[in-house]
Design goal:
The chain is α/β, with parallel strands linked by helices and 120 residues long. It contains 3 helices and 11 strands; from the N terminus they run ααββββαβββββββ. It has one domain. Helix content is 20%, strand content 37%. The chain has a 4-stranded parallel beta sheet. A 4-stranded mixed beta sheet has the order 2-3-5-8, with helices on one face. Strands 7-11-10 form a 3-stranded antiparallel beta sheet.
Protein backbone atom coordinates (compact mmCIF):
# COMPACT_ATOMS: atom_id res chain seq x y z
CA UNK A 1 0.00 0.00 0.00
CA UNK A 2 2.81 2.44 0.82
CA UNK A 3 4.69 1.87 -2.46
CA UNK A 4 1.52 2.38 -4.52
CA UNK A 5 0.95 5.65 -2.66
CA UNK A 6 4.48 6.83 -3.51
CA UNK A 7 4.05 5.99 -7.18
CA UNK A 8 0.84 7.97 -7.38
CA UNK A 9 1.73 11.06 -5.37
CA UNK A 10 5.48 11.56 -5.79
CA UNK A 11 5.52 12.01 -9.60
CA UNK A 12 2.97 14.82 -9.28
CA UNK A 13 4.71 16.53 -6.34
CA UNK A 14 6.99 18.76 -8.52
CA UNK A 15 3.94 19.92 -10.47
CA UNK A 16 2.09 20.79 -7.26
CA UNK A 17 5.11 22.63 -5.84
CA UNK A 18 5.64 24.59 -9.05
CA UNK A 19 2.28 26.26 -8.48
CA UNK A 20 3.47 27.49 -5.08
CA UNK A 21 6.66 29.17 -6.30
CA UNK A 22 6.25 32.91 -6.68
CA UNK A 23 7.57 34.27 -9.94
CA UNK A 24 8.40 37.96 -9.62
CA UNK A 25 6.21 40.17 -11.77
CA UNK A 26 7.92 42.66 -14.07
CA UNK A 27 6.78 46.07 -12.90
CA UNK A 28 7.78 49.23 -14.73
CA UNK A 29 6.91 52.64 -16.04
CA UNK A 30 7.21 52.55 -19.83
CA UNK A 31 7.59 55.77 -21.80
CA UNK A 32 6.28 54.97 -25.26
CA UNK A 33 3.84 55.88 -28.04
CA UNK A 34 1.09 53.85 -26.32
CA UNK A 35 -1.72 55.64 -24.48
CA UNK A 36 -1.00 56.79 -20.94
CA UNK A 37 -2.23 54.22 -18.46
CA UNK A 38 -1.87 53.83 -14.67
CA UNK A 39 0.01 57.13 -14.31
CA UNK A 40 -0.89 60.21 -12.30
CA UNK A 41 0.81 63.44 -13.42
CA UNK A 42 0.38 66.57 -11.34
CA UNK A 43 2.51 69.69 -10.79
CA UNK A 44 5.34 68.34 -12.94
CA UNK A 45 5.57 64.95 -11.18
CA UNK A 46 4.38 61.70 -12.77
CA UNK A 47 3.92 58.62 -10.57
CA UNK A 48 2.61 55.12 -11.32
CA UNK A 49 -0.69 54.03 -9.81
CA UNK A 50 -0.17 50.33 -10.62
CA UNK A 51 2.63 47.84 -11.28
CA UNK A 52 2.57 48.33 -15.04
CA UNK A 53 2.24 51.93 -16.11
CA UNK A 54 2.63 53.73 -19.43
CA UNK A 55 3.40 57.40 -20.00
CA UNK A 56 2.75 58.55 -23.56
CA UNK A 57 5.90 60.13 -25.01
CA UNK A 58 3.97 62.94 -26.75
CA UNK A 59 2.15 63.86 -23.53
CA UNK A 60 5.49 63.93 -21.73
CA UNK A 61 6.99 66.17 -24.44
CA UNK A 62 4.00 68.53 -24.10
CA UNK A 63 4.51 68.72 -20.32
CA UNK A 64 8.17 69.54 -20.91
CA UNK A 65 7.27 72.55 -23.04
CA UNK A 66 5.80 74.20 -19.95
CA UNK A 67 7.94 73.05 -17.01
CA UNK A 68 10.44 70.59 -15.60
CA UNK A 69 9.03 67.06 -15.27
CA UNK A 70 10.00 64.29 -12.89
CA UNK A 71 8.97 60.72 -13.73
CA UNK A 72 9.12 58.48 -10.69
CA UNK A 73 9.19 54.69 -10.52
CA UNK A 74 8.53 53.58 -6.95
CA UNK A 75 7.88 50.26 -5.24
CA UNK A 76 4.77 49.70 -7.39
CA UNK A 77 6.56 50.06 -10.74
CA UNK A 78 10.26 49.86 -9.95
CA UNK A 79 11.89 50.53 -13.33
CA UNK A 80 11.63 53.19 -16.02
CA UNK A 81 11.97 52.03 -19.61
CA UNK A 82 12.12 54.63 -22.40
CA UNK A 83 11.21 52.77 -25.59
CA UNK A 84 10.29 55.67 -27.90
CA UNK A 85 12.35 58.71 -28.91
CA UNK A 86 11.66 61.83 -26.88
CA UNK A 87 12.57 65.35 -28.02
CA UNK A 88 11.80 68.78 -26.61
CA UNK A 89 13.23 72.19 -27.50
CA UNK A 90 12.89 74.18 -24.28
CA UNK A 91 15.39 74.51 -21.45
CA UNK A 92 13.23 72.48 -19.09
CA UNK A 93 14.62 69.37 -17.43
CA UNK A 94 13.43 65.78 -17.35
CA UNK A 95 14.29 63.74 -14.28
CA UNK A 96 13.92 59.95 -14.40
CA UNK A 97 13.89 58.72 -10.79
CA UNK A 98 13.64 54.93 -10.54
CA UNK A 99 13.45 52.70 -7.49
CA UNK A 100 15.58 50.12 -9.31
CA UNK A 101 16.72 51.00 -12.86
CA UNK A 102 16.35 53.26 -15.90
CA UNK A 103 16.69 51.82 -19.41
CA UNK A 104 16.74 53.74 -22.68
CA UNK A 105 16.00 51.22 -25.43
CA UNK A 106 14.99 52.51 -28.81
CA UNK A 107 16.20 56.06 -28.40
CA UNK A 108 19.45 57.97 -28.55
CA UNK A 109 20.60 59.52 -25.31
CA UNK A 110 21.97 62.93 -26.23
CA UNK A 111 22.04 66.38 -24.71
CA UNK A 112 22.69 69.41 -26.89
CA UNK A 113 23.02 72.42 -24.62
CA UNK A 114 23.94 74.99 -27.27
CA UNK A 115 20.71 74.45 -29.20
CA UNK A 116 18.60 74.04 -26.03
CA UNK A 117 17.43 70.78 -27.45
CA UNK A 118 17.30 67.52 -25.60
CA UNK A 119 16.76 64.05 -26.96
CA UNK A 120 16.37 60.95 -24.87
Amino acid sequence: MTSKYRQTILPTLPILLAGLVAIPAHAEVTISKKSTKNMNCSAGVCRPTAKNAVLNVDELANMLTASDVKVIADKKAQDIDVVSPLTWVTTTRLTLDAFRSVAIDGARATHQVAAHRREV
